[in-house]
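During the second year of the project, the team shifted from modelling isolated chains to modelling whole assemblies. The rationale, set out in the original proposal, was that interfaces cannot be judged from single-chain predictions alone. As a representative example for this report, we include one of the complexes processed in the last quarter. Its constituent sequences, exactly as entered into the pipeline, are reproduced here:
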Amino acid sequence: MNQVSLGLTTAGAALMMISLVIGEFATGGWTNYPPYTGAVFSPGVGPDYWIWSVVIAGIGSLMSGINFCVTIYKCRAPGMTLMRMPLFVWTTLCSAIMLVYAMPPITVSSLMLALDRVLGFHFFTNDLGGNMMNYANIFWMFGHPEVYILVLPAYGIWSEIASTFSSKRLYGYSSLVLATMAIAVIAFTVWLHHFFTMGQSASVNIAFGIATMVIAVPTGVKVYDWMATLWRGRIRMTVPMVYMTGFFILFTVGGLTGVILANPSVDYQVHNSVFLVAHFHNVLIPGVLYGVLAGIHYWFPKVFGFRLDERTGRLTAWLWVIGFSLTFLPLYVLGLQGMPRRLPSFTEAAYGPWVTIAGFGALVILLALTMLFVTLWVSIRQRGQLSVPLGDPWDGRTLEWSIPSPAPAWNFATIPVVRDRDDFVARKGAGQAYEAPARYEDIEMPRPTYLGLTLCLAMTVMGFAIVWHIWWLALVSFVIVPASLIYRAFLPESEVEAVVPAAVVAAEDRAWRKAIAEARGVTRDEEDSPANCGLAAPEGEPA
Amino acid sequence: MIHRLYPGLNLGPAHGDDHAEAEPVIFGFWVFLMSDLITFGILFATYATSATTMGRAGGPGPAELFNLGSVALQTGALLASSLTCGLAALAVKHRLGSGTAVGWLIATMLLGTMFLGLELRDFHQMIGAGATPDRSAWLSSYFALVGLHGLHISAGLIWAAVMIGLLHRQPEEGRTKQRLLMFGLYWHFLDLIWIGILSVVFLAGLA
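Output from the structure prediction step:
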């Protein structure tokens, strides 16, 4: 199911890429608002590519949501109670729940638009009873929860990073969990703030405006919790921490301008101006993008077995922070000066200096993006020096750091029994971090399968065929989907699952434990030196 | 893994393992159904906003188009098919042989096909009377809502056929019984949606 979700997301992306070469993409803007995107005003294929890549990728996201919910609810290790879960798992759970509820609206609204375009239905047309405001409503019923679907996992990443790189227990764990849940619920009650000016009554606007302001409260709680986590910690200014510092300052500015925009009467003044553009980039780039980049630096050694180069990484992080500030902060001023968004050119002289600064900032961002690839290139070339096969380069606190890097296919040789929120720290403190298990068991694993790839190709072809109205091809490629699922249902169990014998697991696990016994642990100060091979020397908790 | 047993079919001679495996799978299917419920919910909401004079745009309305006799027959067939679907599950639970279960599934398919046939006949008559989905927003949302339910039923019929094949090929496998459980949930869920359609679309439309 994981593989199929990834396959469908890939199919959606592939359709978007194809549209760049054959035809055109999303000529109706990213929200694809009708009636402009209806068949009357947009007869081309631009909106169709948008619709089908969104629908296909959306089904993939929905399946991921279901998959994560069920895995987190039902498949935890013994002792891993809900309130012992790492915060990243909590935020992933809330995101997954939101996906389950928020994906159907966008799928439905896109398909309704497709029916309008292809079969002449009248959901969102100008004539015969159609109502384009329904589209805005349904679209943003997905669209607003969606921004929290993006940012919640990043909040989880920040929580893990704050705690690990200050060697402290996460401050206010319960309040962070509650704040995450509160955001997940309130996120469904604010969608209307995307169209305060559409003409509904003032009392409706007020209700949604207040809900929008309220959602800033749990977010504020989180920022305070992270700062309190760092307070008097054993802080190392690694790359993720540089991103986090930028995030603290910039994201707070973005959050505050969000509260300003939540007031409908203010929104009437600045809506459709670049003030709004500045606001949402201000939360999405420092909030989500920095979070993702910090998370990549943090978990990269776990996935690939070697760290990313710190020096180029830090430079990249600084470029991101400076580039972002130069590009988007001037847009607040421009927005208040009345500059509308999506402006191809202007004659107003007052905009000039600010636009020039923003343009220069965009060049810095381009440099940051380039440096991202340079970091990757440098790190891959020096992977020998950067390798951390023993698995714990940052003196990690949670259990993923207690296994080798890269993690074996079966992750844990024996399923751990969890006793503490920072279980790995507790084990290290008690000197039990690397105790060999008494005995190993066979591990049942799914066999590799072509199902995801098959569905990915079939759905890509189907989307392409529908966009260009090649109906026979659409039908053929669609039939492949149920056909391959039914084929798989009839396979005997032995062809779906394989067993890794206990001896194989034991041999690999013992070799790793032997290497640990012979290795020298590094202190926190040596984490970015070649001496770091993934074993942390005890230093004690900070006062 | 936290072991909680699924309180459904007796899934195997050694219960424990099969139940533990069924738990996440069946729970996941419940989550999917919740999500599908949102899909239908949005179509119900769209239907409600277009079931107005403006939404009908001068076109034909419920009074001219709906055939309550046919709808009653469809409702009867669908509810009866839920009963036979439940009896198929009971046949597996009480080990009455996979033949009995297959028999009840065939009955389910026949009733489902009858439902679908009657529904298509109604669609055909409406389209013949000029009530096509491109006539008005109300008809667009009618065909989308009722049609999506019909598509679900069609998918369910294919699934039932696959279940018959699986019961024939590997009747004792835990996976087969899990799939039968999920099929049952899906089929009863469609009943639930139909009751919504019956009340909101047909009865309220003619009230």
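The two ends of chain B are 53 Å apart (CA to CA). Chain B touches chain A at residues 1-2, 4, 23-24, 27-28, 31-32, 34-36, 38-39, 42-43, 46, 49-50, 52, 54-57, 59, 133-141, 143-144, 158, 162, 165-166, 169-170, 173, 175, 179 (CB under 8 Å).
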